[in-house]
Design goal:
Blueprint lengths: L1 H12 L4 H14 L2 H9 L5 E2 H8 L3 H13 L3 E6 L2 E6 L2 H14 L2
Antiparallel strand pairs: 1-3, 2-3
């Protein structure tokens, strides 16, 4: 947590470079799709296979796989192999925090 505060304090005093703004914008674009939010929500406190995610959000495996690819590229979800299955989870607690903070904001 201390490292996160140091980064934020540094960024408050120095305007980040264009690449950082671009990277930040790309992450927000990923969050702009309601299907991806549903997937992140399904993974909030558990690990799930593609089939289990499909069942929870009522979407086809190909549609879920496509969105998972985008979420992986943005480093919002991670995966591990369990035999023949691929199991997905949130990449880290920061993803959870982002969603929680937005929910707090929209419910104020």
């Amino acid at each position: 947590m201390g490292k996160d505060i140091d980064i934020f304090e540094k960024l408050k005093t120095v305007l980040p470079d264009d690449k950082m703004f671009q990277d930040l914008s790309e992450v927000f674009k990923v969050f702009s799709d309601s299907t991806r939010i549903k997937i992140l929500w399904a993974l909030f406190d558990t690990e799930l296979s593609v089939g289990e995610i499909c069942d929870q959000i009522s979407m086809s495996p190909s549609a879920v796989s496509h969105q998972l690819r985008t979420l992986k590229q943005a480093r919002l979800v991670k995966f591990r192999r369990d035999g023949k299955q691929t199991i997905y989870s949130l990449d880290d607690e920061h993803v959870k925090t982002i969603i929680e903070q937005v929910l707090i904001h929209i419910n104020e």
